[in-house]
Amino acid sequence: AAEFYILLQAAIVGMCAMAMANDLIAMFVALEVFSIPLYVLTAFDRRRVRSLEAGFKYFIMGAVSSAIFLYGIALHYGVSGSTALSPPSEATAIAGISTVFILVGLLFKVASVPFHFWSPDAYQGAPSPVTIFMSASTKLVAFVALIRIVATDTIDVSITGAPARSLLTVACIASALFGSIVALRQSNIKRALAYSSITHTAYILLALKGGNTQSLQACMTYIVIYAFIIAGTFAVVSVVSGTDEQGDSIANYKGLAKTNPYLAGAFTLLLFAQAGIPLTSGFIAKFDVFRVAFDSGFYVSAIIVLVATVIAAALYLRLVLAMYSNSFGEDSEQETESKYEVSPATGLAIGICVFVTVAVGILPSFVIGFTHVL
Fold first, then answer.
1. Which one of 110, 278, 285, 305 has the fewest beta carbons within 10 angstroms of its own beta carbon?
2. Could you please report the per-residue DSSP string of 20-87?
3. How far is residue 216 CA from its own chain's centroid?
4. pTM for this entry
5. d(Cα 289, Cα 276) in Å, to the nearest integer?
């Protein structure tokens, strides 16, 4: 339908505007410009109750987070007399509350615990093309906004900025543990990957709370690499799920290596990248994050996130075993019989994501040389 593409383009315009905004009010307007089309796109498949429910939940929680974000902007204006991206003129209790409110509004968009409730439902209920777009672009743009706010000292994450650093630390640790553990309990692939994406949020928050140039560069490296990995992953999921979205159970991936070895191979590489296996871009991203975390002295947070990485890897290995083994526990009822047809456009998209994943893993300078000069 034509309105689908119009909504998609409106969301892209809002995302570009948010990444370029130099004012908190402009950032809020851009946030709404891309959020409202996403609410509609999530509920776009009106024939499916799950899609309508996901869009409604996303809209309600998005409206609450936007109100909190706007209230934080108002408090920031009351303290500093300006809505420009600049430090508050004085460190007061109101400035601390403003910092917390602004962070909460943006942490919702990146699906950080405890502001993650919309993510599993929206990822599962939205049509697969919308899930691909939402999983890659929404988190990328929200983190770019966070990086700009931290880089301009609008939010102080240094040792003196206790409210921001404390909130980021709690969100980082909670996201790492909650996302990795709950993902293992899921039988739906979209929900499992949604919880897995919460764990990836923890890696970026771990580097973000450093606040220095190296930390922000590591954040940029991670989100650029992650965008390709997660887009390719959900592109494979969209093929297996089918146009009726009925094949989104993890049990449907049993025997995929037999019916479509190329699709299974691409999916395996992308899952290995999410797990941080060497010679993939995911390893480069995680290495950069942990390097700056240990350099900044965040030993406890880094070790907890490192443990969560091992837990999260169990999900990816579970999916790989399902594709390449003949047995898949009690959930699998029958062998996958059909060879999934991949359209040329989808095949090209998956191929690009896999190529970038492997190329950056072998020659990381392609991405690091770009993100480390921003």
1. 278
2. H--BHHHHHHHHHHHHHHHHHHHT--TT-HHHHHHHHHHHHHHHHHHHHHHHHHHHHHHHHS--BSS-
3. 17
4. 0.87
5. 12
